């Protein structure tokens, strides 16, 4: 099992904490973070990003911060057109999506910081965002109680989107109050999603059919949910300090103390459970609470195996991610700043406040190269289409000799691939020929030697 780390943040200016999930070793603390719920994201393990809402009364007050793994200070600051609450990155770190207090969703390209799309998604503030596992759908929940499923193919297909009656694939209105969390299972467009709300219910939906599969009523308001990787159960963190365990595939069962489909609970937090996350294997569950504590639970024994304290104030975000290559155990700031300068680690540029004109926004994608190793530059994995286009133009301007060299090299590579393929086919033919000869010889021997011979 690859090493994993816990990342935690708070709505107060208590920074970001980081610990090793298995041995509890603390890594560097990252400063100056006051994140809203669902406002903390790891961008493909390359760097940390968090939305910031420091004054809820100011409609124009809001920012998005970036931290590299080996520096405690904020390195990149972005100032979007409005405060962003939920923030999410796709698994490759190509895009970042943010939900605005106006109900708009913003979609940025990470490598360039360009605002690719903005659309009005909800009538009230967006509260949570999540990509499905194949990254083709973006699912949003909002203060209006609505959950909507957005196809990114439709969002970025201007011709089709202009003809469509609406941009969303599904719009679920069964929650009567604010949506607090949404999680997606495995299976692409055939997956389930689970949502929670201040109406004290969690609902299970089918993405393939666009229908409600199950409605579960809880004793208290649920603010956070985590799906078990096997999707047999999900965990629901409530405001009464308990983590309820609800069955997904089991028949209707009832714990005597709770209700249908609730098969147990974990109880140790003194205040509301605000956030949940699971390890990759599902054997460990991490919970954060308003009591400022982070607890790690063994899901098989339902016992606590580790407890952390996050600086001051409540915890409202926890993530469990694969340990990044560039992360270091907690040491002094001075000892970290020198190596980071030596390796020249840099982050992508700030996110743009407004979208460019249509002519300037032709390129809406980035190429993501192989994952970087610990001794490679952090920004070497980001190559935008614009940069590739500039390199091609530069090559063309060097004259016909350079172009001829490129063609010769290309032909050599093609010839090498052709020779390798011929050798593979020759080997396959020899193996098949040998097999046929062996079978014929064996068959002849069996026919000449009957049962009486």
UniProtKB/TrEMBL annotation:
Residues 378-405 form a coiled coil. GO terms for biological process: DNA-templated DNA replication; rRNA processing. GO terms for cellular component: nuclear pre-replicative complex; rixosome complex. SMART domains: WD40. It comes from the Eukaryota. Keywords: Coiled coil, Repeat, WD repeat. It holds the Pfam family WD40. WD repeats lie at residues 119-152, 172-215, 266-307. This is WD40 repeat protein. The lineage of its organism: Eukaryota, Viridiplantae, Streptophyta, Embryophyta, Tracheophyta.
């Amino acid at each position: 099992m690859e090493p994993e780390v816990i990342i935690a943040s708070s709505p107060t200016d208590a920074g970001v904490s980081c610990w090793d999930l298995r041995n509890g070793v603390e890594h560097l603390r990252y400063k100056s973070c006051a994140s809203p719920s669902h406002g903390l994201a790891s961008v493909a393990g390359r760097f940390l990003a968090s939305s910031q809402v420091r004054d809820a009364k100011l409609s124009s007050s809001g920012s998005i911060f970036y931290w590299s793994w080996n520096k405690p200070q904020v390195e990149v600051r972005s100032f979007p057109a409005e405060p962003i609450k939920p923030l999410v990155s796709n698994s490759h770190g190509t895009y970042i999506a943010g939900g605005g207090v106006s109900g708009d969703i913003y979609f940025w390209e990470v490598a360039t910081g360009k605002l690719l799309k903005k659309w009005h998604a909800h009538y009230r503030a967006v509260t949570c965002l999540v990509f499905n596992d194949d990254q083709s759908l973006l699912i949003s929940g909002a203060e209006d109680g609505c959950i909507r499923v957005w196809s990114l193919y439709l969002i970025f297909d201007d011709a089709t989107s202009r003809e469509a009656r609406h941009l969303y694939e599904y719009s679920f209105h069964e929650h009567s109050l604010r949506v607090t969390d949404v999680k997606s299972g495995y299976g692409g467009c055939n997956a389930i999603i689970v949502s929670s709300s201040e109406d004290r219910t969690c609902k299970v939906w089918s993405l393939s059919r666009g229908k409600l599969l199950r409605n579960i009523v809880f004793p208290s308001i649920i603010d956070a949910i985590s799906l078990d990787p096997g999707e047999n159960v999900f965990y629901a963190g409530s405001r009464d300090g308990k983590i309820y365990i609800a069955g997904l595939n089991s028949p209707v069962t009832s714990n005597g103390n709770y209700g249908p489909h609730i098969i147990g609970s974990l109880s140790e937090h003194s205040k509301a459970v605000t956030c949940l996350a699971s390890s990759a294997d599902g054997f460990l569950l991490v919970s954060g609470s308003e009591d400022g504590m982070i607890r790690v639970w063994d899901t098989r024994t339902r016992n606590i195996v580790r407890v952390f304290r996050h600086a001051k104030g409540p915890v409202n975000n926890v993530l469990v991610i694969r340990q990044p290559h560039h992360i270091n155990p907690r040491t002094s700031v001075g000892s970290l700043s020198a190596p980071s300068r030596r390796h020249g680690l840099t982050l992508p540029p700030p996110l743009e406040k407004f979208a460019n004109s249509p002519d300037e926004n032709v390129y809406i994608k980035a190429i993501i190269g192989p994952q970087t190793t610990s001794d490679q530059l952090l920004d070497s994995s980001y190559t935008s289409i614009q940069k590739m286009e500039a390199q091609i133009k530069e090559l063309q301007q060097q004259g016909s000799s350079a172009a001829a060299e490129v063609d010769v090299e290309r032909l050599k590579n093609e010839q090498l691939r052709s020779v390798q393929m011929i050798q593979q086919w020759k080997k396959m033919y020899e193996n098949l020929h040998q097999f046929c000869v062996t079978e014929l010889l064996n068959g002849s021997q069996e026919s000449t030697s009957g049962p009486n011979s």
